[in-house]
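Data availability (excerpt). The following record was deposited with the supplementary files.
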Amino acid sequence: MLATGLFLNNLNNFVGKMKRNGFQNMSNKNPGQQITGAMASVGVAAILYFLIMLAILVTITVLPAIVVARQCNPEYKGLYGFVAFLFPDIYLLQWSIRKFLLNEPNYCKML
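Predicted structure:
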């Protein structure tokens, strides 16, 4: 959840910087056309930034949760993998509690 909050905060800062820089570099000819062009370039840059950061976020947070879910639940790999995809932080929290605090016997022999 912390990673998601940091990602959204960085996206907001990035778009703000792009808007400021894009609008400062315009001359006075056809101001309406230039503002539209600057906003279009900000939109494309923001979308690319969003997609790159989303890929990094998925790799860092979601992928380990899916691997743990599939490894620890061999009879229902698909179901638990899907749950881990939707709620990676919650799934890893319950896994760590069951594995290390409760010390359930025969739960997740991978460690």
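Summary of structural features: Confidence is low (pLDDT under 50) at residues 23-27.
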